[in-house]
Write a structure and sequence with these properties.
With 341 residues, the chain is α/β, with parallel strands linked by helices. It folds into 2 domains: 196 residues, Isopropylmalate Dehydrogenase, CATH 3.40.718; 132 residues, Isopropylmalate Dehydrogenase. 41% of the residues lie in helices and 21% in strands. The protein contains 11 helices and 12 strands. A hairpin with a 2-residue loop joins strand 6 and strand 7.
């Protein structure tokens, strides 16, 4: 059987290191992937191109699949985020971050099992900002009924497919009555009219965050608009060991991009000490997606083997420095490969 082509974006900083380690594990697990390597971010600019080259975007559109390492985004100036551009250009409207406790990674909580679903194209992240006067600037929160209904449909369908029991919408509709009010009204309608099989709840976001850090076990699937989803998904990652152990995926109707959700960490780039687990877990999500979309059992087998291997490695105490261990990037990848069933 042929292999599935996927665009590989190594990214910036530690990106090439964690990407290389991830590819080594996938190859050892006999994942049926053929990589088409392309640039984005600072690496693309340094190569003399745009931050998001046309050929990178075109290849993702062609193959409908990408795995992306972290890309640098300047703070307060410079070019716009590669992630935001990809989501807009490819209409990747649903961001998904599973957040689960891992063996051997000690945190304040045990048995955390959350899925954060984030609307990925609107809100304050629409980037509509204006300078009204020399000392007054404005950022516009864009919310449309079509996008709110779309993400609600997607979230309830996904929760049903994953056999989850409850969706909780985090919002601030007590203050932003029109924008957040539209978001929760759409979620309520989709739930009552189409998915009564899933329990539904709402929480004002500040109180919801407090409840999360008190007892994350009371939540199952969280549904949030763009900015809230970005913040809360990072908060949830802190419940299980940080951004180095949480995968991410962005879904649209025509493409899916899987990515490490952490930054490019330029302070440790080139030292070979970065944790590749987040990108590896994202690659597992990519294989599971391929199994569902392409009905290819080889992808499911490879995903299962890799997941079993990295959980075994962590349970055996094989950890990188960010998790209190001593392994470097390549050593952790080898520890996972050695445990592939």
């Amino acid at each position: 059987m042929s292999r599935h082509k996927a665009v590989l974006i190594p990214g910036d900083g530690i990106g090439p290191e964690v990407t290389r380690a991830t590819c080594q594990v996938l190859e050892a697990a006999e994942a049926p992937i053929e990589w088409v390597e392309r640039l984005a971010g600072l690496a693309a600019i340094e190569a003399g191109g745009d931050v998001l080259p046309a050929e990178t975007l075109e290849d993702i559109q062609r193959h409908k699949l990408a795995l992306k390492g972290p890309c640098t985004t300047p703070i307060g100036k410079g070019f716009s985020s590669v992630n935001v551009q990809l989501r807009k250009q490819l209409n990747l409207y649903a961001a998904v971050r599973p957040v689960r406790s891992l063996p051997g990674v000690e945190t304040r909580f045990e048995g955390v099992d959350l899925i954060v679903i984030r609307e990925n194209t609107e809100g304050l992240y629409s980037g509509v900002e204006n300078r009204l006067t020399d000392d007054v600037v404005m950022s516009m929160k864009v919310t449309t009924q079509s996008a709110c209904r779309r993400i609600a449909h997607w979230a309830f369908r996904f929760a049903t497919q994953q056999r989850r029991k409850k969706i909780t919408v985090f919002h601030k509709a007590n203050i932003m009555k029109v924008t957040d009010g539209l978001f929760i009204n759409c979620a309520r309608e989709v739930h009552s009219h189409e998915y009564p099989n899933i329990d539904y709840d709402e929480a004002i976001i500040d109180a919801g965050c407090m409840k999360l850090v008190q007892n994350p076990g009371q939540f199952d699937v969280l549904l949030l608009e763009n900015l809230y989803g970005d913040v809360v998904s990072d908060l949830c990652a802190g419940l299980v060991g940080g951004l180095g152990v949480v995968p991410g995926a962005n879904f649209g109707e025509q493409a899916a991009v899987f990515e490490a959700v952490h930054g490019s960490a330029p302070d440790i780039a080139g030292k070979g000490v970065a944790n590749p687990l987040a990108l590896l877990m994202s690659a597992v999500m990519m294989l599971q997606h391929l199994q569902d979309v392409e009905q290819d059992p080889r992808c499911g087998r490879a995903a299962s083997r890799i997941e079993q291997a990295y959980r075994q490695a962590l349970g055996d105490g094989e950890r990188t420095r960010d998790l209190g261990g001593s392994l470097d990037t390549e050593q952790f990848a080898r520890a996972v490969i050695d445990r592939l069933p």
